[in-house]
Amino acid sequence: MIPPKATSTGNATQPPNVHDADPIPDAARVAIDAMLRTGDLFRYTTPENSPVALLEAEFAALLGSKYALAVSSCSAALFLSLKSLGLPRDARVLLPGFTFAAVPSSVVHADCIPVLCEVGDNYRVDMADFEAKLDGISAIIISHMRGHTSDMDAIMDLALARDIPVIEDAAHSLGTTWGGQNIGTIGRVGCFSFQSYKMINAGEGGILITDDADLVARAIIMSGAYEHNWKKHPVLHSAFAQWQNQLPLYNLRMSNLSAAVIRPQLPHLAARVKGGRTNHDYVAARLNASPYITVPGALPLEVRAPDSIQFNLVGLDDDDVLVFAAQAEARGVKVQVFGLSQDNARAFWNWQFMPEMPELPKTRAMLMRACDVRLPVRLTQDELDVIVDILTQAAAAAAGPVAAYGT
After folding, report:
1. Which end of the chain is more exposed for a tag (fewer CB within 10 A), N or C?
2. What kind and span of H or E run contains 388?
């Protein structure tokens, strides 16, 4: 598959297709063909070294973690992390008000209560509100939403002082570091996604990493390692023996087909991270030149791995923002305005399944002006320029004519 390129028609350059995922490396075909011949798709059919088991070992080594468990989705990883903590029913779990609906959903599925805290206009956790809501909290999920890392030093200091376990929702942050440490390895558990719009694409899939042998043993059993299949995991078997037949099975396993698609992409991660950061920073610098657009910068200890860009519209009312989105789409760039896109799964007020629905005025205000545009790593600088030109022209059109000085 050849990635689409910007094409010229007269003096106008057409925008690139930002919705297609990157092609899967050819190395995946060999492994998949072998499995199609044998029908060996179940991770536990092979006595050892199944594609899923190899992926777990490789991913743990890549991130610098002791253990990894590959599962059906990042949502499954979050759910299993919560269940493996042994939280009581109706335990309260604190998480940012800016995240994807699957995150509070995983809390509800784990028979816990999501508690939302405010998020600032830089898309990070509002630390004052976070600290104020820690009383009565049994666990914390930090969503590095769209790859934006909150102040993990402050978060971990507060959590450790209260002995509250932290789960990192790193679905958007594979390759991001905080103070030189890989995101996903700072809390008790890190959860990642292999859904199509992520750095590593398997269509669906997820993985959790941890250094906690007892926690991962519980997660492995509950993921669907029934009978003695847990013996095929390189974890302390004494931990498994304690939980044999004591835990329910949720059957959230990853198949060998998904692992075969993922593994050949891991060696490309560093290059994708570097290219994604270069593209993001180039677009951010150009967008920040517009009086109507601002792109929040990274925190001092954060080195991001973006494949999309988020920005805030400045000086525009709700109607103007809708005009901006329509103008951009008419020119060929689809913009998601988190708070104004109908039924957006990232706008907390749309989560009608929540047992408790707080009012988060800071988060709401941010979402009403926060925009999201994909920037696949494969895009060239010329293609990026086309996207930036469309966005800045659409913003200027939405703002309307600027009156001349003195009139």
Report:
1. C
2. helix 381-399
Q: Chain-centre distance of CA 139, in angstroms? A: 19
Specify the residue for token string 């063909």: 33
pLDDT at 251: 96
Q: How far is CA 247 from CA 84, 193, 220, in A?
A: 10, 25, 10
Structure tokens at 157: 């200091």
Q: Inform me whether the pLDDT recorded for 379 exceeds 60.
A: yes
Residues 6+ apart with CB under 8 A from 295: 284, 287, 288, 309, 310, 311, 312
Q: What does the pLDDT look like over 74-108, one tens digit per residue?
A: 999 999 999 999 999 999 999 999 999 999 999 99
pLDDT tens profile 202-211? 999 999 999 9
| Structure tokens that stand for 126 in this block | 């509002």
Give the phi and the psi of residue 134 in degrees, each rounded to 5.
-75, -25
Paired strand residues for 8: 13
Q: Find out whether 184 and 139 touch, Cβ atoms under 8 Å.
A: no
DSSP state of 401: P
- Give residue-wise pLDDT tens across range 239-283: 787 888 899 999 999 999 999 999 999 999 999 999 999 999 999
Structural class in CATH, domain 8-21+269-399: alpha beta
Q: How many angstroms separate the CA atoms of 69 and 280, rounded?
A: 31
- Nearest Cα neighbor of 25 from 307, 256, 268 is 268
Paired sense of beta strands 137-143 and 92-96, if any: parallel
Buried-state track 65-89, b at ≥16 Cβ within 10 A, e below 16: bebbbbbbbbbbbbbbbbbbbebee
Contact 62, 177 (CB under 8 A): no
Cβ-Cβ contacts under 8 Å for 65 (sequence gap 6 or more): 184, 185, 190, 209, 210, 211
Domain with CATH 3.40.640.10 in the chain: 27-267
Domain 27-267 adopts which CATH fold? Aspartate Aminotransferase; domain 2 (3.40.640)
Q: Which two tokens stand for residue 168?
A: 């990192």
Which residue in 150, 161, 221, 146 sits closest to 186, CA to CA? Answer: 150
In the block, residue with structure tokens 């494969």: 378
Are the beta carbons of 101 and 349 closer than 8 angstroms? no
Q: Using alpha carbons only, what angle is made at residue 320 by residues 316 and 321, rounded to the nearest 5 degrees? A: 80
Q: Which amino acid is at 365?
A: A
CA dist 126 and 296 (Å) reads 14
